[in-house]
Amino acid sequence: MKPVKQIEHKGIIERIYENKIVVTILAESACMLCRLKNNCSVSDTEEKSIEIFTENPENYSAGEAVIVYFKQSLGFRALFLGYLLPFITVTFILLITVSITGNEGVSGLAALLSLIPYYLILHLKKNKIKNTFSFSIKKTNIDSPLLKVDI
Hints:
Elements: E1 6-16, E2 20-28, E3 45-53, E4 65-71, H1 72-101, H2 104-113, H3 115-124, H4 126-132, E5 136-139
Antiparallel strand pairs: 1-2, 1-4, 2-3, 4-5
């Protein structure tokens, strides 16, 4: 049996609720690993807060360093729902309406408007999607590395 690949991020617990932990992670672009990042305007970092639902929040404390993770396959599914499927939808609608109407302006507008029902359906299914894309949390042995960005 193959081990499940995971995407992991180090984070700091910001708040703890009844069955939910809010963790702040520092999302870094691939440029952050580059030695020339200080001389380049392309590199960027961004703090993000992630809600993690857990049955045992009492095992954690605010300010504690943790690792947030989820299955890599879920990352590909998110990529598909967020980028690939809308692109396929717009392209398909554009090609169909151009072949029917022959008018590129109307076809472009129809293709863009086709995203409204797509994202409306995603919005209506957000609870199901939220359950599918759940993060997990585990303790780390590293003493609380502060998530500060030097600018």
